[in-house]
Amino acid sequence: MPMIHQSHSAADAGGVVGPDVVAACALSAVPGIGSSALARLVATFGTLSDAMDAGPARILAEATALKLTQLARDFLVREPDLVELGLWAVEAARVAGARIVLLGDPWYPELLREIEHAPALLYVRGTLDPAQLRVAVVGSRDADDYGLEVAKQVGEGLARARVQVVSGGARGIDAAAHAGALWGGGTTVAVLGCGIDVVYPPEHGELYERLARGGGAVISELPPGTHAGPRNFPRRNRIISGLSSAVVVVRAALGSGALNTADHAATQGRPLFAVPGDTTAKLSAGPNELLRLEVAKAATSARDVLMALGWAAPAGPAQEPATPQPEEPLFPEETDPHAAPTKPGTVTSDHVLDGKGVILWRLLDPRLPLHVDELAGKAQLSPQETLRCLAELEFKGLCTQRPGKYFLRREP
User: Which domains does the chain have, with CATH numbers?
Assistant: First the structure.
């Protein structure tokens, strides 16, 4: 286990950690204790380290003043070893490749620090520049083709303007926004509604790796091992808006989580944008309502958002992002200088696909959506491996996902 050292700096993905880090990890891992209760612990005891040193019994004595939930009280009655709990969380973060950033650290995002009940700590995989310009792009998990395309284009346009895209890492609009940012050669942040060591949805493991390794980040305030659940997403949503200078709602039904993010944005004083849609479409109801109430401005592109914020927008049409060359050719005959030119609509080595990706792309139809299970059977791959490869195809603009895990081929 990591050693405790008398330092108050943030913890890296391994090595020495300070007592404040261990205390924050321990107390935030107590079931029923959130950012509000942690702030009250600081107000009562001075620091989280002092609160942990006081022990479970002393914390319980202040339970009413701290407004601890019954869940937290029941846990503390058992007098857990809080140091052990904190060290466990630190080790779990290290194994997941994450570091721990505390609210008082210079690496903590500046905008997020300003919100009410800012997270006491963040588990971070990747790079989280505290001063980076960011815009959130959010919407429904069960998005239609129009919404997915708009989200991808907005994400791409923001990335080309050197604005980082923030979203929730979910299926649908979130995934399209992240993919657009990567396609635009930019970086993006996924805020999880689960622990940093939990991959949810399970097919997004490859996406999270690309985010974390590509200059962006995957972050969570929830303790390692926390599974995704409805109660976690409103907490996650306040971080999405809190990190961002503005929030764009693409497609969302009334009462959806994206509108909860919009509510947080309004409370936090963040400019809000909505993509208008067909008045008969369920997924247009949320954005249209925001526009009707005049709490959001209409936006159909990244340029609309950038201009409204007074930020520079890229001049001229977007250029296709450069793709890295593979270490070895996917199709040797296509890289042979004596080979015939490839026909339009052919996947070549420039797309940097493995053999499984090529097989799936060839199985896909540009007009008839095919279900992932059917594709897995035809390709003789597991459903999980099929979803991973399809996600890679989607990131490269070679397929489109429709609701219900149906996929269409897109020509390069």
Answer: 132-193+229-309 (3.40.50.450), 332-409 (1.10.10.10)
